[in-house]
Every structure is written in structure tokens, then in C-alpha cells.
Amino acid sequence: MSAVLRVSALGKRYGELDALRDVSFHADAGELIAVVGPNGAGKTTLLSIIVGIQAPSAGTVDRVTGESSTAGGRGAVSRVGWVPQAPALYSKLSVAENLELFARLEGVADPRAAVARMLEQTGLALRANEPVGRLSGGNRQRVNVALGLIGDPPVLALDEPSASLDPGQRERLWEFVGTRVAAGTTVVFSTHNVSEAQRYADRVLVLAEGRLLFDGAPQALLEQGGEPAGGDLERALVLFLRARAPAASGAHPHPEDMP
Amino acid sequence: MRWLLRKDLLILGRSRLLLALLIVYPVAIALLIGLAISRSPSRPRVAIVDETPPGETVKVGNQRVLVSEYARQLFDKVQAVDVPTRAQAVAKVDSGEVLAAVVIPPDIAARVASDTEAAQLEVLYNGNALEQSLVQSTLNSALAQANLGFSAQIQQAAGSVIGSLLSGGNLGSIGAPENLIGLTQIPPTLGAVIARQPPGHDRTQLERIDAFAGFAAQNLALARRVLSIIGQPIRVNSVLLHGRRTPLNTFAVVVAVSLSLMLVCVLLAAGGVALEREEHALSRLLRGLVTRETLLVEKTLLAAGCAFVIAFAMLAGISAFVALDWSRVGLWLAALAFGAIAFGALGVAIGALAREVRAASLLAFLLSLPLAFLALVPGGSVSGGFYDAIAAISFAFPFKAALQALDAAVNGASPAIGLSLVHLAVLSAVFGALARVGLRSVE
Predict the structure, then answer these.
(1) Are B364 and B270 in contact (CB under 8 A)?
(2) Which of residues 5-24 of B touch A (CB under 8 A)?
(3) Which residue from A78, A90, A92 is facing B288, i.e. has the nearest CB?
(4) What is the pLDDT of residues B158-208, one digit of tens each?
(5) How far apart are CA B284 and CA B90, in angstroms?
(6) For residue B15, which residues of chain A lie inside 8 Å, CB to CB?
(7) Which runs of E-coded beta strand occur in B67-223?
């Protein structure tokens, strides 16, 4: 399988603080990759560089779209879908208007058809004309994800997508993401909910203090954490971090956590 | 950019309170300004107590000047409330029914006629500092005008007496002989008598009297001329060195329109940029869908466009009350457009620095109102160093330049509109660059 996303020796500095240090990995088409780690590990920083919001201080990010981010530059990377943690929606616009706006900004060939498709896929067709501000948190997050996918990107990055959802809404979200992955979309998501990574991810990246400490299948992380097959991945992660990064138990501040 | 503009217009259209404010505010301001400057200023209510006996006059030579004429001059300047006694006047001032009272004492005529004591009026007033200032200022002006009028009447009477002394005739004063010879008639009459006198002591004495009469006539004539100008020894001749004279009412229009242009534009632009942050949409937009520059230009143009339309509508509305020169409408449009873009740039800079709409709106208000106030401080009203600081601040922000541009466009006032437009263009670039720096950090 060919890599659709290749991250090489990525570094990011905020003044004296190294938010990311020498992070390298790749993602293949149709892979679902979870990025886990303690607060301040650099998860959001990594995703924001992948989608092009921030430029790296060192290293490169190459995407299947031909777009690259290098140190000192910030190429146009609109072909990577982005789902920020807080829903990035215009609350005075309806669901359909939000989708159409971003479809047009993404340069989608047939924006109305794309809107209809996303409404159908997210199950929001009946609420298409409702202002986003009146939707529940779960439905807002569905629109948020739909906006990330409106341009049918080959790579989708989600920053803690289920943080504000109840269990039922989380289930529906992952079902929807699963259909996209099955269709060949590569998904990279960050989460604090390790059980989600265990249930849905093909691979897990463990970040701590800006370093990539682990890159492999959830089962491999269980083994490294000393847990049996089918054991508790969260416990395995804690034990793994204690062994590999004892100082990464939340003691170090990180720009993401700063007010 | 057009999709962003369309989106913002949709959002604006659905923010009914904001939209209503944008329409109602300038209409209300235009109506208030129009009504305020099309009505004459109200005169303060002042109680007048005239304690002089009815028909009391001040006698000058053979003429009498009515004291009531003096009171009439005062009545013209204030909304006079006739009160018979000082005690009643004090009660009215205490109760706030009138802002002040003027008491004309019964001995005013005697004092004017005494030549040794100045006549005195008593002024009683009350109220807060602003009312006191208004009453004092109005009364001082009214008293000065009344004094001037009274003085003119006394000068006229005195001049008439001097004229009679010079040209002779009947002076009209009780006890004065009839058909008196005038001082100017003495030299020719006496000259004929002297010519008939033989040289000697009598002739010499007559020649001395003749010389004195001639000298006295000349100096009395001079005294009459001096008397005619002494009431207003210096007249003011105003010369405007640059530009056209701006009538106060059209300047008030320019100030009102500039203020509305600034408030609408700065608030809309600041709110528009801050809204993108508040809705967390910046990170989605700025990852390659829209450049920061495009976003800032779009917000600036949207705010400037709305404010431009509103400000022009205000000018058109106010022109129903105040005569504005519509042949200069091209210059109005240029001044409004440049001003709106500069205010828009200031607004996006505020919006880029503030992270919430409420913070951006508050910051926009807190910055705009003092800027307008400082730009209107006239030179010479504060100390030199302080005024220089005010001028520097006003120069660094668009309000004063926009005000000057609009004043030049509407009234032809100086400085020339071109300079102000260049100033506004430079400020637009500077604040645009500041906004760009403010958007460097996205989330």
C-alpha cells in the first residue's frame, strides 16, 4: 500500500519549548490512526501541522495531494480535511449553508451535490435548513465532521472528535468515520479516550513530551504495556508511559494547554 | 472572496438587533443633528427684578435715557420672567424654576448720573456646574450687549450736548439761556470785533479769548468723535487665510457623519474578524482555503461598504435640514470611501487582536470615542505640549483625517482633501499590516 501522508523528522518549537521533536511516521490509504498521549504531548500541534495551520520548525510533511509543508513555509493544504476539537461552524447559518460555503471555498465541482451527499451521509438531511446554533452538541459535531469531509479529501485529521459527545453520539460518529475509512480515506485522530483507539484504530501513535514513543497496532501497545491480548489499552498506555517517559505524567506545560 | 462576503451578509441579515441598530442609529443621529441645528438655541429662563421707579431715566445733558430700555436689552437675550421683588426672585432660583435672577437696583439711575460710582446689577444663580456655566456665559454676554446698548444711548446724548455747545442754539436745559452762540461761531464773530479795535490792551485780551475759543471748538469736536468710538474702540475684521469658512451647522453635520462612519465601520470590522475566531472557523479557513490577506480585505470591504452606505444616507437625510452643496457629491463619496476603508482597517486590527466579539466591540468603543473627542479639541484650548500629544495621537488614527477629508469635501475647508485622502490611505495600509500580524496566531 502506498503512503498518502509522510511525516519526516518533524519538529516544532515555541520559543524555548520543543512541542514536537523528530517525529516521523507515515499513513497509508484507508488507515485509521489514533494519536494518544498525556496532555501537552503535542497531539494537536502534530495535527495542526499536518493540515497546514502551522508550519513546522523542522522536518517535512508530504501528502498524497502533492502538497508539502516544510520548515519556514506553510503550503496550501486544503485537500487535507480538518475537524477541529471545537466545532468550527457559523451558528447563524443553516447546516446546508455551512456545508455549501465550505464546498465552494474548497472548490468542489458540484457544491450542491456535495452538500446533498454529506447531508445524507451524516443523517442531517431533515435538519438541513436549521441554524447550526440550534443543534445539539452531537449534531454540531456531525456537521463539523461533515465540513471536514465536504471536499472529499484523501486524508482527514480529527482533533479529539468525540470529546463532547455522549456514548450514543460517539458510536454514530465512529460508524460514520468507519464508512469513510472503508471508502479509502485515511483518518488521523487525536484522543484521550484510549478505548476508542483500541476499538477503532488500525495503528496507535503514542506521543509524550513532543516525542513519538510508539507507532504500531493497539495489540502491540498492549504487549509493550504488559497487558494480555484483549486487555485494557488505557492501563497498558499508562504503564508504557511510566516506563518510557516517567516525566510525561502531565508535569510539563505545553502551548496547547496554555490559556 | 465573494462566498465569504455572501456568508457575512447572510449572518448580518440574520443578526436582527445589529441590523436594526445599524439602520436606526444613523437615522436617529441624523434627525437629532438636523433638528438641533435647525432650531434656534433655547434661552435660559432668568427672573428679572426691575426695582427702579417706573419711567426712571438717566439724565445726560438735555436728554433722558430710560432705565427700562436697559432691561429690555436684557430681556432679548434670555427667557425673561418678570418678578416684582428680590425675595420672590431668590425663591424662584432656589426652586429651580429659573436658572438665575438679575436684580436692577432702584438707585441705578442715580449711580449712573453720579459720575463717581459705577452702577451695579445683582445676579443670583443656582444649579449644577454645567448650568452655572451656561447661565454665567449667557448672562455675561447679555449684560455686555445691554451695557453696550445703554452706553451707545448715553454717548448719543452726550454727543448731542457737545454738538449744541459747538454750534449754539437752544440747549433745552433748565436755566440755560436761549439762542446761545456756539463755540465754533465765536472766532469769526470775535474776529470781526477785533478787527475794529485799535491796538492796545483790550484788543490783546480779545485776541486771547478768540484763540481760546478756536482751540476749545477744535478739541470739543475731537471729543465728540472720540466719544462715538469709545463704546467699541476696537472692531474685529476677520480674515480666513486658507480654505472656505465652514459654518458651524455644516461642521456639526460633518462631525456627526464622521462619527457614525467610524462607529459602524470599526464595530462591524472588529466584530467580523473576532466572530471568525469565536466560531473557531479561522483554523478551517486559513489552512489554504483563504489567505489571511483575503480574509482581512473581505472584512474591511464589508464593513466599509455598509458604513459608506449608512454615512451617505445620513448626509442625504441631513441635507433636508441643512443646505449642503450637492455639486460636490463626488468629493463626498471619495472622502466617505477613503474614511470607511481606513476605519475598516482599524476595525480588523482590533478584531484580530481581540479574541471574542464582545471584547472586540468593547475595545472598538473604548478606542473610538476618545479618538473622536481628542480630534475635536481645538488648538489653544489646552497647553502646547498636551496639544502636541493630542495632535500626534489624532494623526496616528483615522478619525481626524476622515473628519478633515469630509469637511473639505462638504465645505471646501482646509487642508485640501487630497492630503487627507493620502493620510487615510497610509493609515489603511498600516492598520491592515497590524491586523495581518494579529492573525499570525490562529488558535
Answers:
(1) yes
(2) 6-7, 10-11, 14-15
(3) A78
(4) 788 788 888 887 766 656 677 778 888 888 888 888 888 888 888 888 888
(5) 73
(6) 92
(7) 79-82, 100-104, 122-125, 168-169, 180-181
